[in-house]
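We read letters as residues; the fold follows as tokens. Both lines appear below.
***
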Amino acid sequence: MSFLYNLTENCARKAASIPPKLAGKIDKSIAFIHLPKCGGTSVHTAISRHYRADHISYLDPTASANASKSSQMEMLAFRKSLLAYELAKQGDRRFISGHWPVDEGLVTAHMPNWAFITILRDPVERWLSNYFFNRHRSDNRNHFGTELDLDAYLDTKDAIENGKLYLSFCNGGEMPEGDLSGPIARAIGVFSKFDLVGTLDDMDGFLDGFEQRWKVRPTLSLSNMSPATKPDREKALSGAILERIEQICAPDRQIYDAAKRARTPLSKPS
């Protein structure tokens, strides 16, 4: 149990910069489902400033990936179990944040006590951001890094699964195969239960919805930027490659488009 506690509770590097005068202003426990490469690092940092440091739990992605291997568990299944643990803990006005997979049952069971929020990004833009970040990163090469150029990467299992990230994260971390109509519908249903869903192309709308619900408007700043330069991206892309990426991202495109159609803003009715 001490290992589990340390993995999810060691938030010192995230909480150290929280100004005391801002801590504890949000009167609600919030679970931020941080979907990779959707601007979530900035959102986590901004919201954290409004909670006491000892009320924040942050999922360390590298530690959880390594721990899942040593535990001989699939990584997202391991992370889902950590989320269930965090949601079940007692205490008021807590903030938890991380690359947590969810499903309808988990969200429904904890809706009375927790507000679920997330940020989505155009699936192709998210896919490209994820690829270029991992291709050009200088640190932690073994954690999702790749040495492959874009054309070669498109033929890998990682490339295909990267186009179904929303699908997987909203189906409990499982990676559906075959007929995806059911899993896509379930993912759309999961997002419909969230208290607030924003998109990276309309962060003002997300912040407006946040302020309306919790009387606080977090201040965002850019962080965790891609190490790839604009010329890197332009050199690697062509019309044919973009068409292939759009095909790969088709499942997530359906989920994203459904969420955008539902928003005004993307949130449950008050």
Summary: The first helix runs from residue 2 to 9.
